[in-house]
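lol ok so funny story. i was supposed to be doing the assay writeup but got distracted and ended up predicting the structure for this chain instead. priorities right. anyway since i did it might as well share w the group, maybe its usefull for someone
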Amino acid sequence: MELFNKKNIYEMKTYKIDHFLFQISRLSIVLLFLGSFACSKARQFDTVEFGVVSDAHLSLMHDPEKTLATFISEMKLKNPDFIIELGDFFPPDPKFLKFYELWYEFEGEKYHVIGNHETDGGFTLEQVLESRQMESPYYSFQKNGFHFIVLDGNNKKSPESKPYFRFIGKEQIDWLKQDLNSSKFPVVIFSHQELFSPEGEEGMGIENYKEIQAIFETHNLNRPKTRIIACFNGHAHFDYVEKINEIWYIHINSMSYNWLGQDFAYNRFSEEIYRDYPYIKYTAPFRDPLFATVKISKEGYIKISGRESEWIKPDPWELGYPERFKRFMRPQISDRYLEF
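and the output, tada:
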């Protein structure tokens, strides 16, 4: 019996070739999958997305649970890398701690910035930090190849200073310089009070903001690979951005209202609401809560996706509020595409 005739040899060769091609095909699929996965991870590492809200003033405004729940519900759907509130959230009074139940419904990473109204009602900074499970009012963290710094603008300028404080002291400045020097990634800054003042509106933000800007600009000159891209703030209840020496300074508008003051008080709500929320008459409230998602890419852009609402009438201008503020004050957080 001929075991290795021409037909058998041909069929064996054909089988080996087919088997080899099959193995090559399997390997190609695996490599293609691994390559696609690696590219996907690289793209993720080059981009970070976060949800941001500022100046919710949940202790001041009516219907605070619905206001906060709207933000949390949308963040649960969008599932950003983290969420952050930029201060003036609520004081650590036990009657307000129920808001944390909503805040913690977002299962991802969550961060706080200390605003100037967190200690209203006689509460101490230590009580505020404890309620938010924070070790320090200023700190840093990393996410997806970016370095984030949270600053505290509530330092005393001098022993004679009286609240509300708007200053960053020497101890924090020394820490800031050290933290910037240790960063291996591009930097984004968060603060409550603004680190710049629009022309003609000085006197609202950090008093020594020019000193802080100089630190940022020196860092960018010496370490361009870990440069500061942008600074996000709340406090002023403005919807406004400005680029100063290649750094974006971005105002995130209040979630709830613009403050008008006693000269422009107006009764929009029932006496029951005013009994529980007496300061609401000094505001121009928004009908819907404002917040934003922010995407930052190492390809060189910041994309802000905001929300638009409307005033609960009358609006500030109908009450005679200075019209120069129209360029800042509006019931929205604008969509923006900012290149760096």
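The CA atoms of residues 140 and 149 lie 4 Å apart. Residues 8-45 form one domain.
back to the writeup now i swear
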